[in-house]
Please model this.
Amino acid sequence: MGNPISRQEINEHIVEIVSDSGEGAQKAGQTFGTISAKMGNGVWTVEIIPAEIKPPARSPAGASGIRIRLGSQYMTNMGDAADVVVALNEQVLYSRIATYAYKKGTVILLESKWLTDPNPEIVEQYKTALQEFRDNGLIVHEVQMEEECLKLTPKPRLGKNMFVLGMLCHIYDRDVEKAYHEIKNTFIHKGTKVIELNQQLFQAGYDFAENNLEFHYNVPPWRTEDSEEKMIVTSGNQAVGLGVMASGMDMVAMYPITPATSASHYLAEVYHMVGGFIHQAEDEIAAAGFAIGSSFAGKTACTITSGPGLALKTELLALAVMAEVPLVVCVVQRGGPSTGLPTKVEQGDLLASLYGEPGDAPKIVIAAATIEECLHFVIMARKLAEAFRTPVILLTDANLATGVQPYPRPEAKAEWLASPIDQSEWTKGMPAFDWDEKTGLSTRPIVGQVDGQYVLTGLAHTQKSKVAYDRESNQRGCDMRSRKLATLSSTLKPPKINGEAEGDLLVIGWGSTLGAIEEAVGKLQAKDYKVSSIHLRFLSPLEPGLKDIFAKFTNVLTIEINYSDKADAPFITPENRRYSQLATILRAQTLVDIDCWSNVYGQPMQPGLIYEELQSRLNQGEA
Amino acid sequence: MFGLKSDWSLDIKTRYFALGDYAGGEARWCPGCGDHGVLTVVQRICRDKQVPPEKTVAVSGIGCSSRLPHYMGTYGFHGLHGRALPIACGIKSRRPELDIWVATGDGDCYSIGAGHWIHAVRYNMNMTVLVFDNSVYGLTKKQTSPTTPIGYKTNTHPEGAVLEAHNPLTTTLGIANVSFVAQTVDWNPNHLYATIKAAHDHKGFSLVNIIQRCPVFLPNFFQGHQDDPGRILLLTHENGIPLEEKFTKLFPTQQEHDPINMVDAYDIASKREPLPIGLLYRNTEVPCYEELSSVGKDMGMEEKLAGIEKAYDQFAI
Model:
């Protein structure tokens, strides 16, 4: 074909494909991400999900698509502004611009068919937008994608995504063989004709970019293709599903709720391979009840939900705490309160997880910080639930749930699987709650065990699980259940410090913000700022040694995606300021005057924003 | 090759369970409460069918009825307001070999747990569900229940209940996959036993609405029905509740009703006077959800590990 292309070598790029729903942008982006991961690049992809099911075509609210961050290092988050964007109409770009997804110099490859649309209004909208985008510093290239695709198919709307994939694969010098292979896999069930058409559309896009576009990049890999370490690439919700299977839990009871449901979709497809069953209950409460019933009968179960579902499960969670039933509750957090922001990210369910129930309901709460941890923490959660005879809440969020990332392939280990139900004879006379005074731990009779018969109750009860309303019994039960958390805490290690063990500022995070925080902190450390960070995985009980760590820093700050009052907002005083959720807990537990920086934009934390905030605090010396 | 095998032997039961093996704590219901009679019948059926106590679970919600598990010598789950059925279904889901009893009431099942009731009927999991329907909230002291007759004075409606009472029988009959619906009265031990026994024998979700006396909050409410058997409509049929003639002849008002006839069942269930007792509907052909939910429960370690590897393979790069 044309002249040899000169390629600019870059360390990383952020690419977006944005369109109306149903135009296949996500499929194209996922394929692009997979090809890149297979070529040894670090990759993080995240879906751009419209707020409505059937938004009108060509509307900002309908923006649907995907962001792919690829680079020559391990990618831990979605990054800041995009570098290259493919847009199938101009209107959807408005919503991305409104969320600061782009910057001056972002290259936009825009479908140009709207310029010749029979509807003069659309033509006008297109022209206006084009001018606005250019005035704002975006570099817009008009591309006749529809026209090119029409050469191959009468239905270009369905195939345009492969044309887009082809363009991107040329721009970033992707391996064409790998692309053909992925396309084949995608359409494997649709027959040879469909596969070939999509490969032709891909090739058309690839050739178009070669002949018509003047920018081409090279993103060197961070790991060699023949690397010994095997990798898998999944979303956080798929990782949760894999974790359920690898943990040996063979029952999940759920009720559909965004953004948690795709974990169950995945399990519904594959769970049978490990003999598991997914139960779609009639409501969130029934899902928890069903799981608790199964756990009571010796088959520790899991329920997967999001904030509003967690609220509905509250009463049954308290029962599981009270009656010491092991249970894994995976909460994929979204924006709240109420139905809030169903498709968007927030870390707003921490306090509800810890303190949602009336009375004292101590339970284990852990939070995954990476997609890989989504998998491993489900396994840990089941083990903790059984060892400590308690519900365990595993917090993830919409950012992890929809993010896609390669990570080391876990082993399938027999010791990770749940052990068979114990049906040996129960030691006669041993009570159902044979609490160890020091640890609060006890062995649980399982239905079927001869002489183990007891009646589980949510009422205050004695060691023998007999209802008891006397002073001592209730105090003792509460003591024993709480003691289990202290016991667990005594087995934990202090969190690892990212950076020096002392300095001007310590940043504390939890959950999906890990990558963004460490990226920002790393850049500041490279500029000799005395800033370090820690990231908590255990929220109840807290990891030990925090007060000692805090004491070595002039200032301590949490960064969270949940609400807090700004310190300088009207009427706010140090006494009435409402802090973000982890800050609230840490202040109470350590008596250290911890500050917080948080927002509820519904967006993942961007490393660039964190960098700016921390830099300005460090420069002002007030950190 | 012919005749008896040499190792042929009698299957001698090594364990025999007496009534006492099914007895738990001393029942704390009020004297004269119908719950006592139901408890006795449940224990007798367990004894008569020799179900191992450790393989039996009595599940309940909240209310007077729901104290029943505490008085059983089996495993028990005294759960939450309205939530007995999801818990019972969960227990059954991966342990289909367990024998499940559910004790619930008109408030627990037909009000706060109404959503679960509807869906538990659809799941049709094999369990015996006893609804202690005394037309009032007892444990919380005389509030209107979904089956309190309109006009009846309660603490929440001192001028009388304002809504027409709910008919749990017609509702249950209207739910997809319904497989067993019966009604009985607590004051007739013969009918109570035979009905609950038939429910327990049925493979599927068997719901028995037990018309029941609350001597404290609805004293003498069913006295008329007790005194005059003519106010009871006894359902009879060769496929219905098996009853001896010496028993049936005590009831002047009878109707022969084939329990597979849904149209007639609905017609009978929609009338309250005379009060129908007996088997309204039974369908043994309805699939049980545990046949789906328990698939794979005995999968071995090797196969599971291979399944996990296969799942990883799908995401391998």
Observations:
- Chain B touches chain A through 61 residues (CB under 8 Å).
- Residues 194 and 269 of chain B are 19 Å apart (CA to CA).
- Chain B has eleven helices and eleven strands.
